[in-house]
Amino acid sequence: MEKIIVRGGQRLHGTVRVEGAKNAVLPVIAASMLASEGESVITDVPVLADVYTINEVLRNMNASVTFTNNTVYVDTSRQLMTEAPSEYVRKMRASVLVLGPLLARYGHAKVAMPGGCAIGSRPIDLHLKGFEAMGAKVHVGNGFVELEAEGRLHGAKIYLDMPSVGATENIMMAAALAEGTTTIENCAKEPEIVDLANFLNKMGAKVVGAGTETIRIEGAEKLHGANHSIIPDRVEAGTFMVAAAITGGNVLIENAESEHLRSVISKLEEMGVTIFDEGDGIRVLGPDKLLATDIKTLPHPGFPTDMQSQMMALMLNAYGTSVITETVFENRFMHVEEFRRMNAKMKIEGRSVIIEGPGDLQGAEVAATDLRAAAALILAGLRADGITRVTDLKHLDRGYVDFANKLSALGASIERVDANGDAVNPFAHLSERPVSFLTYLSRS
Ligand SMILES: CC(=O)N[C@H]1[C@@H](OP(=O)(O)OP(=O)(O)OC[C@H]2O[C@@H](n3ccc(=O)[nH]c3=O)[C@H](O)[C@@H]2O)O[C@H](CO)[C@@H](O)[C@@H]1O
Ligand SMILES: C=C(OP(=O)(O)O)C(=O)O
Fold first, then answer.
1. pTM above 0.90, yes or no
2. Residue 33 — φ and ψ, nearest 5°?
3. Ligand 1 centre and the CA of 432: distance in Å?
4. Which is it for the CA torsion 85, 91, 97, 100, positive or negative?
5. Is 341 annotated as a binding residue?
6. Do residues 181 and 308 share a domain?
7. Which residue puts its alpha carbon closest to atom 28 of ligand 1?
8. Where is the catalytic site (predicted)?
9. Which residues partner with 284 through β-bridges?
10. Domain around 89
């Protein structure tokens, strides 16, 4: 089994560049299926396992998809199949984002029902209620969800019980080809929602209000392919901010957008970290002594759940009592047990974790429980005494491009090795060799 081996104690310094956002590119590639003519050219695409998975989903439905040089070319002008291949859908929950585009374009869509995962049960009831309001019939059974509509979907007024990112995206995509106007109230306001709305508008849709709590979409009769570049990954940027902070380092994070990271920046500043905009990025200076703080995860612009475990690694090294409250996912504390293997002192109380710091973190063999936990354990290893070995790297590769090498370039003592202890770089030339990457992932 592959491992990342980290020797703690190096201060990070230098420059790192963040990639396009995973959580923006997946819905954008799904949305490209709405085009009945022309090619979509999507740039600044990160070379991630999830991108290969969504590309395979589309290819298996008869779309033409090419991924090279961080650019995805999608042509969906020929007739698509409306059932997504379960083999790939099961690898990634974001595959449910094909439902909205297929339903709107063909009046039919079928995918394997996504199950729960390591961070919670993750139902899709809000997506389905939205489709029903627009005229679709929903059948759930035998492990599948199937949607049918006679003729075009119609516009509807939809109120989301909670501002779900995926439901907002799916409904927005379906509404882009529906007859009439759809409003989504109490919708998600994440930067990735705005990026998707911008792409839809380039395809000929009329979407207004993205980034606020009400989005209005006037349906178009047809949409065409468009060129679009993906926004920077705010979670990758936040992860490198924590890497600089936890090691008392000095790192310039290029291509990071501070407007998307307000809540993270504010909490890091409370902990004593110095942060300022520089050029097209953010400079982060870690203090000698980190201070405790509290965070509560919330929908944007609140503190992102996708940064919760990385902040936990930081708080383990901060002076005082820190409390993390997770309100978005009911089960996103699996990494606590792994941190305990590293001698972390923390207590789970309901949806909160109480951390007494600074602990005396020691290197240990730990397993990634989800993709952000993978990064968080590596971050903890950067500061721990001795050697940390992190396994289950398939999670990491879903969301971080070349994480170990990027940290190594900043001065970390880190390497990725295979079962024989030989160095590996799974990302070398990947964009030219998607199939071998998928093979690699299924092995790791
Ligand atoms: C690919 C992608 O963009 N993933 C992100 C997206 O996931 P995702 O879109 O799955 O997250 P949601 O915003 O939908 O989920 C938020 C909460 O709403 C609940 N819920 C959601 C839909 C629904 O129909 N019913 C329901 O109850 C979920 O169980 C969860 O408790 O937003 C999450 C919250 O910021 C991030 O952690 C994920 O990284
Ligand atoms: C939870 C995440 O992603 P996904 O919704 O794709 O599982 C994440 O990016 O941290």
1. yes
2. -70, -10
3. 32
4. positive
5. no
6. no
7. 122
8. 117
9. 251, 275
10. 22-229
